Amino acid sequence: MLDSQRGESLISTQAKKLSFLLGIAFAILTTGLLAEKKSKELVVKEANIQFLSEAPQETIRGTVSNAEGSANLDTKRVVVRVDLNGLKVPNRMMNNHMHENYLETESHPIASFAGIITKWDLKNKAVEIEGEFGLHGITKKNFKISGTVEERENGFLIRSNFEILLTDFKIEIPKLVILKLNEKIRIETNILWQNKE
């Protein structure tokens, strides 16, 4: 009778151990699958893109949030398209000049970037992408963007700051306006990427 109870107790203990080990294995597999799912396809969920021109007579800041894009962390390919028709500056007359005379958004409504992620370091929150930046019908190759990346529940928040020269994209500033608009424009981006559903 005692041997029978010991045998049952031993079987019960082994069953508990096996059940515990299976539970751990399931948790590891599930975590792995979730991590794998998170690292596949991402799309732009929200975007806040600002541009800043600091000239001797005036500082101009504009914002746009109309952006779409996709990123694949396996292939490292990133594409972002921004609808410049949504770009706004506080002064209405200046806004019209910007769209009609400089960006010519009726003919060139999209600014784009297509590139490859060359650095992705979640521990140090660093990201670098190199590719082609398109604006005003001109594409600039070997364009590098550096920024920070923060892991979010369902994706990543990427922030970056970089500068462009308007002359690189054949956007000319009349001499009368040069004191109000800088040829060098600072771009600040906050883009929230989420898993593609």
CATH domain class name: Mainly Beta
Beta-strand portion reads: over 45%
Number of discrete domains: 1
Q: What structural class do the secondary elements suggest?
A: alpha+beta
Largest sheet: 8 strands, antiparallel, barrel
Give the ordered list of helices and strands.
HEEEEHEEEEE
Overall pLDDT metric: 83
Q: Tally of extended strands?
A: 9
| Anisotropy-based shape | elongated
**Termini gap:** 60 Å
Cross-sheet strand order for the largest sheet: 1-3-4-5-6-7-8-9
What name is given to the CATH topology?
Lipocalin
Given as residue ranges, the uncertain stretches (5+ residues, pLDDT < 50) are 21-37
CATH superfamily: Lipid/polyisoprenoid-binding, YceI-like
Radius of gyration, whole Å: 26 Å
Q: Number of helix segments?
A: 2
Helix content: 10-25%
CATH architecture group name? Beta Barrel
What does this structure look like?
Residues 41-194 form the Lipid/polyisoprenoid-binding YceI-like domain. This is Lipid/polyisoprenoid-binding YceI-like domain-containing protein. It comes from Leptospira adleri. InterPro entries: Lipid/polyisoprenoid-bd_YceI, TTHA0802/YceI-like_sf. With 197 residues, the protein is an alpha+beta fold. The chain has two helices and nine strands. It has an eight-stranded antiparallel barrel. 24% of the residues lie in helices and 47% in strands.
